[in-house]
Design a protein that fits this description.
The chain has four helices and no strands. By secondary structure, it is mainly α. It has a domain at about 45-75. Helix 1 packs antiparallel against helix 3.
Length: about 130
């Protein structure tokens, strides 16, 4: 379902970009080159601008609905989104065993000996 919504979202976004570019503005944009500002257009003298604005509104509504739905689905803990399926760690990895406890010291050996002597501190150098 997520893949279908993502594909619909991409198609609607490309369609919305095309519809916005076709609209006529204050100057001669792409819409004027396709005849949307002329009286000989398919939609009549003023019909093209209202039709394109309705198409923009419809595309924007579908775009927002798919955006909200995809955001909701990506927040679900057991969602099957594209990103979550790739980032899951392998569940079949064997658990590592804890290291065994160290062996008890032999009888008669002292256990409170230091492991290594401390290194002497280097003398401080005066700053010149």
């Amino acid at each position: 379902m997520t893949i279908v919504l993502t594909m619909l979202h991409i198609v609607v976004s490309i369609f919305m970009i095309a519809v916005v570019l076709l609209q006529s503005g204050k100057g001669a944009e792409m819409g004027a080159s396709f005849g949307s500002s002329g009286s000989q257009s398919v939609f009549g003298a003023g019909g093209g601008s209202t039709f394109l604005s309705k198409m923009t509104t419809g595309a924007a509504v579908i775009f927002m609905l798919t955006s909200l739905t995809l955001a909701y689905l990506s927040g679900q803990p057991n969602s099957s989104s594209i990103m979550s399926s790739k980032s899951k760690p392998a569940a079949a990895a064997p658990a590592q065993e804890a290291p065994a406890a160290p062996a008890a010291p032999a009888q008669g050996t002292p256990t409170n000996l230091p492991s290594a002597p401390a290194a002497p501190a280097a003398p401080a150098q005066p700053n010149k």
